[in-house]
Automatic annotation (TrEMBL):
UniProt similarity note: Belongs to the IUNH family.
Keywords on record: Glycosidase, Hydrolase
Highest rank taxon of the organism: Eukaryota
Protein name: Inosine/uridine-preferring nucleoside hydrolase domain-containing protein
Domain named Inosine/uridine-preferring nucleoside hydrolase: residues: 5-312
Keyword set includes Protein biosynthesis: no
Species of provenance: Diacronema lutheri (Unicellular marine alga)
One annotated GO molecular function: purine nucleosidase activity
GO biological process assignments: purine nucleoside catabolic process
GO cellular component terms given for this protein: cytosol
Xref: InterPro entries: Inosine/uridine_hydrolase_dom (IPR001910), IUNH (IPR023186), Ribo_hydro-like (IPR036452)
Length: 329
Protein backbone atom coordinates (compact mmCIF):
# COMPACT_ATOMS: atom_id res chain seq x y z
CA UNK A 1 0.00 0.00 0.00
CA UNK A 2 1.42 3.39 -0.97
CA UNK A 3 2.26 5.99 1.67
CA UNK A 4 -0.17 8.84 2.14
CA UNK A 5 -0.02 12.31 3.63
CA UNK A 6 -3.37 13.89 4.49
CA UNK A 7 -4.23 17.57 4.86
CA UNK A 8 -7.68 18.01 6.38
CA UNK A 9 -10.18 20.49 7.81
CA UNK A 10 -11.38 17.54 9.92
CA UNK A 11 -15.16 17.84 9.72
CA UNK A 12 -17.26 14.66 10.15
CA UNK A 13 -16.65 13.41 6.60
CA UNK A 14 -12.89 13.99 6.94
CA UNK A 15 -12.92 11.94 10.15
CA UNK A 16 -14.52 9.01 8.31
CA UNK A 17 -11.94 9.35 5.51
CA UNK A 18 -9.08 9.35 8.03
CA UNK A 19 -10.51 6.29 9.74
CA UNK A 20 -10.85 4.43 6.42
CA UNK A 21 -7.39 5.22 5.10
CA UNK A 22 -4.41 3.12 6.08
CA UNK A 23 -2.61 5.16 8.77
CA UNK A 24 -1.12 8.17 6.96
CA UNK A 25 2.56 9.02 7.37
CA UNK A 26 1.51 12.63 8.01
CA UNK A 27 -1.71 14.38 8.96
CA UNK A 28 -1.88 18.18 8.96
CA UNK A 29 -4.88 20.40 9.52
CA UNK A 30 -6.12 23.35 7.49
CA UNK A 31 -8.95 25.82 7.95
CA UNK A 32 -12.13 25.14 5.98
CA UNK A 33 -15.47 23.98 7.32
CA UNK A 34 -13.68 24.03 10.68
CA UNK A 35 -10.88 26.50 11.39
CA UNK A 36 -7.37 25.03 11.33
CA UNK A 37 -7.30 25.08 15.12
CA UNK A 38 -10.71 23.48 15.52
CA UNK A 39 -9.72 20.89 12.93
CA UNK A 40 -6.67 20.07 15.04
CA UNK A 41 -8.81 19.71 18.16
CA UNK A 42 -11.26 17.58 16.21
CA UNK A 43 -8.49 15.27 14.93
CA UNK A 44 -7.15 14.97 18.46
CA UNK A 45 -10.59 14.16 19.89
CA UNK A 46 -11.21 11.46 17.31
CA UNK A 47 -7.83 9.82 17.19
CA UNK A 48 -5.74 11.12 20.10
CA UNK A 49 -1.99 10.70 20.13
CA UNK A 50 -0.85 13.78 18.25
CA UNK A 51 2.90 13.69 18.00
CA UNK A 52 3.80 17.21 16.96
CA UNK A 53 2.55 20.71 16.60
CA UNK A 54 1.92 22.02 13.11
CA UNK A 55 -0.32 25.04 12.81
CA UNK A 56 -2.30 24.99 9.60
CA UNK A 57 -3.41 28.10 7.78
CA UNK A 58 -6.88 29.55 7.76
CA UNK A 59 -8.00 30.58 4.29
CA UNK A 60 -8.72 34.18 3.36
CA UNK A 61 -12.42 33.73 2.53
CA UNK A 62 -14.42 33.62 5.71
CA UNK A 63 -18.11 33.00 6.05
CA UNK A 64 -20.19 36.00 5.03
CA UNK A 65 -23.99 36.33 4.90
CA UNK A 66 -23.87 34.81 1.42
CA UNK A 67 -22.33 31.70 2.97
CA UNK A 68 -24.90 31.29 5.74
CA UNK A 69 -25.35 27.63 4.90
CA UNK A 70 -21.66 26.94 5.49
CA UNK A 71 -21.64 28.89 8.77
CA UNK A 72 -24.58 26.81 9.99
CA UNK A 73 -22.86 23.64 8.86
CA UNK A 74 -19.69 24.63 10.75
CA UNK A 75 -21.69 25.19 13.94
CA UNK A 76 -23.46 21.82 13.54
CA UNK A 77 -20.17 20.00 12.93
CA UNK A 78 -18.56 21.62 15.96
CA UNK A 79 -21.48 20.60 18.18
CA UNK A 80 -21.44 17.00 16.96
CA UNK A 81 -17.65 16.72 17.37
CA UNK A 82 -17.88 18.28 20.84
CA UNK A 83 -20.35 15.63 21.90
CA UNK A 84 -19.04 12.53 20.14
CA UNK A 85 -18.60 9.61 22.50
CA UNK A 86 -15.34 7.96 21.52
CA UNK A 87 -12.58 7.01 23.95
CA UNK A 88 -10.06 9.54 22.61
CA UNK A 89 -12.60 12.28 23.33
CA UNK A 90 -13.29 10.89 26.79
CA UNK A 91 -9.60 10.46 27.60
CA UNK A 92 -8.79 13.91 26.33
CA UNK A 93 -6.64 15.85 28.74
CA UNK A 94 -7.44 19.51 28.84
CA UNK A 95 -3.88 20.91 28.53
CA UNK A 96 -3.24 18.79 25.42
CA UNK A 97 -6.47 19.96 23.81
CA UNK A 98 -5.58 23.57 24.62
CA UNK A 99 -2.19 23.06 23.03
CA UNK A 100 -3.85 21.69 19.87
CA UNK A 101 -6.23 24.64 19.83
CA UNK A 102 -3.33 27.06 19.98
CA UNK A 103 -0.93 25.39 17.61
CA UNK A 104 -2.78 23.07 15.29
CA UNK A 105 -1.61 19.52 15.00
CA UNK A 106 0.27 17.04 12.92
CA UNK A 107 0.66 13.33 13.30
CA UNK A 108 3.76 11.58 12.14
CA UNK A 109 6.40 14.32 11.92
CA UNK A 110 7.86 15.83 15.05
CA UNK A 111 9.38 19.21 15.64
CA UNK A 112 7.96 21.36 12.87
CA UNK A 113 6.55 24.78 13.42
CA UNK A 114 3.59 24.49 11.11
CA UNK A 115 1.75 22.39 8.56
CA UNK A 116 3.66 23.68 5.52
CA UNK A 117 7.06 22.87 7.02
CA UNK A 118 5.81 19.47 8.22
CA UNK A 119 4.66 18.74 4.66
CA UNK A 120 7.97 19.86 3.13
CA UNK A 121 9.87 17.67 5.63
CA UNK A 122 7.60 14.68 5.03
CA UNK A 123 8.08 14.90 1.25
CA UNK A 124 11.87 15.08 1.67
CA UNK A 125 11.91 12.12 4.08
CA UNK A 126 9.45 9.93 2.21
CA UNK A 127 9.43 10.78 -1.48
CA UNK A 128 6.84 9.18 -3.74
CA UNK A 129 3.85 9.45 -1.40
CA UNK A 130 0.30 10.40 -2.31
CA UNK A 131 -0.91 13.69 -0.82
CA UNK A 132 -4.65 13.63 -0.12
CA UNK A 133 -6.16 17.11 0.29
CA UNK A 134 -9.52 17.04 2.06
CA UNK A 135 -9.83 20.79 2.64
CA UNK A 136 -8.80 24.11 1.10
CA UNK A 137 -5.33 24.15 -0.47
CA UNK A 138 -3.86 26.89 1.75
CA UNK A 139 -1.20 24.71 3.40
CA UNK A 140 -0.04 23.21 0.10
CA UNK A 141 0.20 26.68 -1.48
CA UNK A 142 2.23 27.89 1.49
CA UNK A 143 4.54 24.86 1.20
CA UNK A 144 4.99 25.72 -2.50
CA UNK A 145 5.81 29.31 -1.64
CA UNK A 146 8.62 28.09 0.62
CA UNK A 147 9.74 25.11 -1.46
CA UNK A 148 8.70 25.48 -5.11
CA UNK A 149 9.72 21.88 -5.89
CA UNK A 150 7.67 20.27 -3.12
CA UNK A 151 5.22 18.63 -5.54
CA UNK A 152 8.11 16.99 -7.41
CA UNK A 153 8.57 14.71 -4.41
CA UNK A 154 5.01 13.35 -4.60
CA UNK A 155 3.84 10.59 -6.87
CA UNK A 156 0.27 11.81 -6.82
CA UNK A 157 -1.99 14.56 -5.55
CA UNK A 158 -5.61 13.68 -4.78
CA UNK A 159 -7.78 16.76 -4.36
CA UNK A 160 -11.28 16.50 -2.95
CA UNK A 161 -12.80 19.66 -4.32
CA UNK A 162 -13.81 21.64 -7.35
CA UNK A 163 -16.95 21.51 -9.44
CA UNK A 164 -16.04 20.97 -13.08
CA UNK A 165 -19.03 19.69 -15.03
CA UNK A 166 -21.70 20.49 -12.43
CA UNK A 167 -21.84 23.70 -10.40
CA UNK A 168 -20.89 23.66 -6.73
CA UNK A 169 -22.96 25.18 -3.93
CA UNK A 170 -20.49 27.92 -2.90
CA UNK A 171 -20.76 31.48 -4.30
CA UNK A 172 -20.31 31.77 -8.11
CA UNK A 173 -20.95 28.03 -8.46
CA UNK A 174 -17.57 27.20 -6.94
CA UNK A 175 -17.10 24.26 -4.59
CA UNK A 176 -16.39 25.14 -0.94
CA UNK A 177 -12.79 23.87 -0.64
CA UNK A 178 -11.82 25.94 -3.70
CA UNK A 179 -13.93 28.94 -2.65
CA UNK A 180 -12.27 29.28 0.76
CA UNK A 181 -8.86 29.98 -0.77
CA UNK A 182 -9.13 30.50 -4.53
CA UNK A 183 -5.61 31.90 -4.90
CA UNK A 184 -4.15 28.83 -3.18
CA UNK A 185 -6.20 26.54 -5.44
CA UNK A 186 -4.98 28.35 -8.58
CA UNK A 187 -1.39 28.16 -7.35
CA UNK A 188 -1.50 24.45 -6.55
CA UNK A 189 -3.14 23.50 -9.85
CA UNK A 190 -0.58 25.57 -11.79
CA UNK A 191 2.31 24.05 -9.84
CA UNK A 192 0.99 20.52 -10.43
CA UNK A 193 0.92 21.24 -14.17
CA UNK A 194 4.48 22.62 -14.09
CA UNK A 195 5.80 19.70 -12.01
CA UNK A 196 3.96 17.08 -14.06
CA UNK A 197 2.47 15.68 -10.85
CA UNK A 198 -0.42 13.30 -11.46
CA UNK A 199 -3.47 15.14 -10.12
CA UNK A 200 -6.67 13.21 -9.47
CA UNK A 201 -9.63 15.50 -8.94
CA UNK A 202 -12.61 14.22 -6.97
CA UNK A 203 -14.92 17.11 -7.70
CA UNK A 204 -18.64 17.65 -7.31
CA UNK A 205 -19.00 15.63 -10.50
CA UNK A 206 -18.86 12.60 -8.21
CA UNK A 207 -18.70 13.87 -4.61
CA UNK A 208 -21.89 15.13 -2.98
CA UNK A 209 -23.87 13.44 -5.73
CA UNK A 210 -27.35 12.18 -4.88
CA UNK A 211 -26.57 9.27 -7.19
CA UNK A 212 -24.31 7.86 -4.46
CA UNK A 213 -26.99 6.09 -2.55
CA UNK A 214 -25.55 4.08 0.30
CA UNK A 215 -28.49 1.78 0.97
CA UNK A 216 -30.37 2.07 4.24
CA UNK A 217 -29.61 -1.48 5.50
CA UNK A 218 -25.87 -0.83 5.22
CA UNK A 219 -26.19 2.56 6.94
CA UNK A 220 -28.23 0.88 9.71
CA UNK A 221 -25.58 -1.82 10.12
CA UNK A 222 -22.83 0.82 10.28
CA UNK A 223 -24.79 2.74 12.91
CA UNK A 224 -25.17 -0.25 15.24
CA UNK A 225 -23.25 0.26 18.49
CA UNK A 226 -19.81 -1.28 18.48
CA UNK A 227 -17.23 -1.62 21.22
CA UNK A 228 -14.60 1.07 21.05
CA UNK A 229 -11.27 0.58 22.86
CA UNK A 230 -8.55 3.19 22.53
CA UNK A 231 -5.22 1.65 21.48
CA UNK A 232 -1.89 3.31 22.23
CA UNK A 233 -1.52 4.86 18.79
CA UNK A 234 -4.72 4.77 16.72
CA UNK A 235 -3.20 6.48 13.68
CA UNK A 236 0.35 5.22 14.04
CA UNK A 237 1.73 3.59 10.91
CA UNK A 238 1.93 -0.20 11.21
CA UNK A 239 2.52 -0.75 14.89
CA UNK A 240 2.34 -3.81 17.10
CA UNK A 241 -1.30 -3.27 17.88
CA UNK A 242 -2.35 -3.01 14.25
CA UNK A 243 -5.54 -5.00 14.79
CA UNK A 244 -6.51 -2.89 17.80
CA UNK A 245 -5.79 0.31 15.85
CA UNK A 246 -7.95 -0.88 12.96
CA UNK A 247 -10.81 -1.83 15.29
CA UNK A 248 -10.61 1.60 16.87
CA UNK A 249 -10.66 3.41 13.52
CA UNK A 250 -13.68 1.30 12.49
CA UNK A 251 -15.45 2.35 15.67
CA UNK A 252 -14.68 6.05 15.11
CA UNK A 253 -15.86 5.86 11.50
CA UNK A 254 -19.12 4.16 12.48
CA UNK A 255 -19.90 6.69 15.19
CA UNK A 256 -19.27 9.48 12.69
CA UNK A 257 -21.53 7.79 10.12
CA UNK A 258 -24.24 7.59 12.78
CA UNK A 259 -23.91 11.35 13.30
CA UNK A 260 -24.10 12.22 9.62
CA UNK A 261 -24.81 9.35 7.18
CA UNK A 262 -24.68 11.67 4.15
CA UNK A 263 -20.99 12.31 4.96
CA UNK A 264 -20.34 9.03 3.12
CA UNK A 265 -20.84 10.89 -0.18
CA UNK A 266 -18.10 13.41 0.59
CA UNK A 267 -14.49 13.08 1.82
CA UNK A 268 -14.59 9.28 2.41
CA UNK A 269 -14.60 8.98 -1.40
CA UNK A 270 -10.98 10.16 -1.36
CA UNK A 271 -10.15 7.25 0.94
CA UNK A 272 -11.96 4.94 -1.48
CA UNK A 273 -9.84 6.32 -4.30
CA UNK A 274 -6.67 5.41 -2.38
CA UNK A 275 -7.93 1.99 -1.32
CA UNK A 276 -9.69 0.89 -4.53
CA UNK A 277 -8.99 3.23 -7.45
CA UNK A 278 -10.60 0.78 -9.87
CA UNK A 279 -14.10 1.59 -8.62
CA UNK A 280 -13.81 5.09 -10.15
CA UNK A 281 -13.99 6.04 -13.80
CA UNK A 282 -11.38 8.72 -14.49
CA UNK A 283 -11.25 10.93 -17.59
CA UNK A 284 -8.51 13.28 -18.70
CA UNK A 285 -9.75 16.87 -18.42
CA UNK A 286 -8.07 20.28 -18.59
CA UNK A 287 -9.14 22.44 -15.69
CA UNK A 288 -8.68 26.19 -15.22
CA UNK A 289 -9.05 27.65 -11.72
CA UNK A 290 -10.25 31.24 -11.26
CA UNK A 291 -7.95 32.72 -8.64
CA UNK A 292 -10.62 35.19 -7.46
CA UNK A 293 -13.65 32.89 -7.15
CA UNK A 294 -12.26 29.37 -6.99
CA UNK A 295 -14.46 28.32 -9.92
CA UNK A 296 -12.96 25.26 -11.63
CA UNK A 297 -13.94 25.13 -15.28
CA UNK A 298 -12.97 22.82 -18.10
CA UNK A 299 -10.76 24.60 -20.62
CA UNK A 300 -9.04 23.78 -23.90
CA UNK A 301 -6.12 21.35 -23.97
CA UNK A 302 -2.88 23.28 -23.58
CA UNK A 303 -4.46 25.66 -21.09
CA UNK A 304 -5.06 24.99 -17.43
CA UNK A 305 -3.97 21.79 -15.71
CA UNK A 306 -4.38 18.28 -17.08
CA UNK A 307 -6.16 16.30 -14.39
CA UNK A 308 -7.62 12.84 -14.03
CA UNK A 309 -11.20 13.82 -13.30
CA UNK A 310 -13.35 11.29 -11.44
CA UNK A 311 -16.59 11.18 -13.42
CA UNK A 312 -18.26 8.07 -12.01
CA UNK A 313 -18.09 5.71 -9.06
CA UNK A 314 -19.37 2.15 -8.96
CA UNK A 315 -21.77 2.52 -6.03
CA UNK A 316 -22.09 -1.23 -5.45
CA UNK A 317 -18.31 -1.55 -5.17
CA UNK A 318 -18.19 1.46 -2.85
CA UNK A 319 -20.72 -0.25 -0.57
CA UNK A 320 -18.63 -3.42 -0.69
CA UNK A 321 -15.56 -1.41 0.37
CA UNK A 322 -17.47 0.18 3.27
CA UNK A 323 -18.65 -3.26 4.36
CA UNK A 324 -15.15 -4.75 4.13
CA UNK A 325 -13.42 -1.87 5.87
CA UNK A 326 -15.96 -0.99 8.54
CA UNK A 327 -17.96 -4.14 9.30
CA UNK A 328 -15.36 -6.92 8.97
CA UNK A 329 -12.77 -7.56 11.65
CA1 LIG B 1 -12.97 18.24 4.33
Amino acid sequence: MRKTFVDTDCAIDDGIALALLPPPALVTTVGGILTAQRAAVSAHRLFGGLSAKAAGLDPPNEFSPIAAWAAGYRARCERMLDDIAVPAREAEDAPRARECAEHGAAFGIAGHADAASALIAAVALQPGATLVCLGPLSNVAEALRREPRVLHGLSELIILGGAVRRPGSAPHGAEWNMWFDPAAAARVFAAAAAAGTRLVLLSNDVANDDAINVHAPLVRALCEPVECKLPAAPLAPAGEDRAAARAYRQCVARRLVALQPEALTMDPLAAALVLRPSIFELQLAHVCVDERTGVTAECAAGRGTAVQLAVRIDCGEYERLLRDELLCS
